[in-house]
Specification:
single chain, 232 residues, 2 domains, 73% helix
Length: 232
């Protein structure tokens, strides 16, 4: 009997018996095997990818071989044509294409890299795939910063252009500037004449407004009479 106990924290403890016949035990055993297989496979893949990049750059920069030629030979060694015949082979092919792209990316920047970084790659201490990721991130960050600066500069220029245009056109005239002050005496005289000449329908239309005007007048007159009475 094979017993495996897994503690995932928070009292989440799972006991797996790989030899038990029931479906749950077999399912748990398979889940555990999948995780272990992926971890082992990815670990070996990372080691192999790092070793490939290390030896590729040694062949190119120490032995003087051609980078593209070495990538071509790597394709032959991996059985490039046969990889397209099934899904897993296609997945391997895509992974290798990423590695080839990483190698070219690092090679493009090789001349500007610090000698210590080159030495670590050639000594197998640093992975070209990690360096490629750093280079791509730096390029992405620089692009974002440039786009942000360009947007800021455009906004500032648009604001400056709008200000210059406003100054060139002079002050903006508001609707209040078009209002002509009305003399109260002239307005009352005009209203009196209009009332005399106004038809019944027009008079009915302004009854409410006239009532409000009369009420305002009466209020103002009453306040004046009150002040006069206090003063006396």
């Amino acid at each position: 009997m094979t017993i495996q106990t897994i503690d995932n924290g928070a009292d989440a403890i799972v006991t797996i018996d790989a030899n038990a016949p029931d479906a749950r035990s077999q399912m748990l055993s398979s889940a555990s095997a999948i995780a272990a297989c992926v971890i082992e496979t990815e670990g070996k893949l990372a080691e192999s990818a790092k070793a490939w990049g290390h030896n590729l750059f040694r062949a190119v920069y120490l032995d003087g071989l051609n980078l593209d030629g070495m990538i071509g030979d790597s394709k032959l060694a991996a059985g490039w044509q046969a990889l397209s015949t099934n899904d897993t082979g296609k997945q391997a092919k895509r992974r290798l294409e990423v590695y080839f792209s990483n190698a070219r990316k690092v090679a493009e920047a090789w001349g500007t890299m610090e000698q210590s970084v080159k030495d670590d790659v050639l000594a197998g201490l640093s992975s070209i795939h990690y360096l490629a990721g750093q280079l791509r991130k730096a390029e992405s960050d620089a692009k974002k910063a440039a786009e942000k600066a360009a947007k800021l500069a455009k906004a500032e220029q648009d604001a400056a252009d709008a200000k210059a245009e406003a100054q060139a056109n002079g002050p903006v005239q508001s609707e209040a500037d078009d209002v002509v002050p009305v003399d109260a005496i002239d307005a009352i005289t005009a209203l009196t004449v209009a009332l005399d000449d106004m038809g019944d329908d027009d008079f009915a239309a302004i009854e409410a407004d006239m009532a409000a005007l009369i009420a305002a007048f009466d209020k103002r007159l009453a306040a004046k009479l009150d002040r006069m009475a206090v003063a006396a």
